[in-house]
Specification:
- By secondary structure, this protein is of the alpha/beta class.
- It has a single domain, classed as Vaccinia Virus protein VP39 (Rossmann fold), CATH 3.40.50.150.
- It is built from seven helices and ten strands.
- The strands form two sheets. Strands 1, 2, 3, 4, 5, 8, 9 and 10 form an eight-stranded mixed β-sheet that branches.
- Helix 3 crosses helix 4.
- The longest helix has 14 residues.
- It is globular and about 45 Å long.
- The protein starts with 12 loop residues before the first helix and ends with a strand.
């Protein structure tokens, strides 16, 4: 992953104290954290379910899930140790330590290291920064830990056609996405192809009120 983008750049203690991590993962801390929780609740997430949050970052969504799920049912994975450290500080600031966040640093989506299975998983603003081979790795690892009929949701930047080499203006003129440069875009067919090659059923959810990204659903049968 550190050869794909600079997302593994480590923040200093002072930067974390100044909440630089909130901007590093895209900002809109409260808005997008709540959006994730409400989306997952509307698609069946209940407090008794275990949730895998892939690319959890500094727990923008994680702190919302922690407060909602039963204790120890939240599992967050990220490649950046400093963001995980920042997430722990965010958890402590809200007195959520006793909710028992399970956090893991991995640059290869090694969800199996949690040694459990999941009814649900989600990755927000992760596939938008990954080339196809890394997305396929992620989906293969996700399949290993999903329960039968388990569901994984992933947001992405949408391209209008396959192998779209022209840049695409995303959302409300937020930024351009590209075929072969971070941030990446993919067509629905390309996302379906990746999901099926990873052994998962795929459905296009589309608009989920995110300012720029669409949503895909991957199901283990």
């Amino acid at each position: 992953m550190n050869r794909v983008n600079n997302y593994d750049s480590q923040l200093s203690t002072d930067q974390i104290a100044c909440q630089v991590h909130r901007g590093m993962i895209g900002g809109r801390w409260e808005e997008l954290g709540l959006l994730q929780l409400e989306f997952m609740k509307s698609h069946g997430l209940r407090p008794e379910h275990r949730l895998a949050d892939v690319g959890c970052g500094a727990l923008r969504g994680g702190i919302k899930y922690l407060a909602y799920l039963n204790p120890r049912n939240y599992y967050g994975l990220d490649l950046n140790q400093s963001l995980i450290d920042a997430g722990r500080i965010e958890v402590a600031a809200l007195n959520l330590q006793e909710r028992g966040a399970n956090l893991l640093v991995s640059d290869a989506f090694e969800l199996h290291k949690f040694e459990t299975t999941f009814r649900f998983g989600i990755a927000v603003s992760v596939f938008s920064h990954l080339p196809m081979n890394q997305i396929l790795r992620c989906l293969k690892e996700v399949k290993r830990v999903l329960e039968p009929s388990g569901i994984f949701y992933a947001s992405f930047f949408l391209a209008q056609g396959d192998i779209q080499l022209e840049p695409v203006m995303q959302g409300r003129n937020i930024l351009h996405s590209y075929w072969d440069i971070d941030p990446y875009h993919y067509s629905i067919k390309e996302m379906e192809w990746m999901g099926r090659h990873a052994g998962l059923d795929v459905n296009y959810i589309g608009d989920w009120n995110h300012p720029g990204q669409m949503m895909m659903e991957f199901i283990r049968r």
